[in-house]
Amino acid sequence: MKIKIRNWIFCPRLITTLLALTFFILFLRLGFWQLDRAAQKYDEFSFFEKRQAKQAINLDQNNIKSLGSTELIWRKVKMTGSFLEERQILLDNQVNASTAGYYVYTPFLVKDSENVVLVNRGWVPSGANRSLAPDLVVTKGIVTIVGLVKKEPRTGLLLIKDHTEKLNETIMRMQRLNIEEVSNIIKINLSPLIVRLSPESDHGYIRKWKSRDSGKNTHIGYAYQWFAFAVTLLIIYLIMNTKRETE
Q: Does pTM surpass 0.90?
């Protein structure tokens, strides 16, 4: 193919054109994919904000059965009951201020019911000797707590095949947390939801929960980068294949 414009000639090779076209389309598709991800993130954040703005639900036996985890996710809840301190779960590999530690999960028996909810009570340091269990506060009697209903925490690569370790008679350490798996280990039928204890609530540990945002701007930034790659590729392709006509 040869195109002449005044004293300039555009004459690209077929293989060069095919490669440029392939990567140009790829960069554009990646850019539009990032824009789509940005829209999804914004919708998720809007859903989160709307749930957060609603009044806290008094999570009793009737609400747990009637609403379920789907209706309760990201909702503020208030529960009255007692912690089952003899069944502590430590989620391993959690870092706070560059210090290794655990998230402490304790089953919470809702008052006047058989419903048991797993509560993330916050972070504690693991200490220099990992074979020893950290000192945990024992909360006795009936208490009222406030928290946020969340999904099961994400987990990375498991460092060992058997990721559960018994530190003592009341504390189990795990690298991955799954409600069904925890239920089998502690021999208690847990409700299919997790409550993250609010920083304003008593009976917890360090709770510097990360503030949530939409993440939309990050994906828009990535999209601009892919579109910039596409434009740069097009400019290079035109320059490399355009020459001045000689006599």
A: no
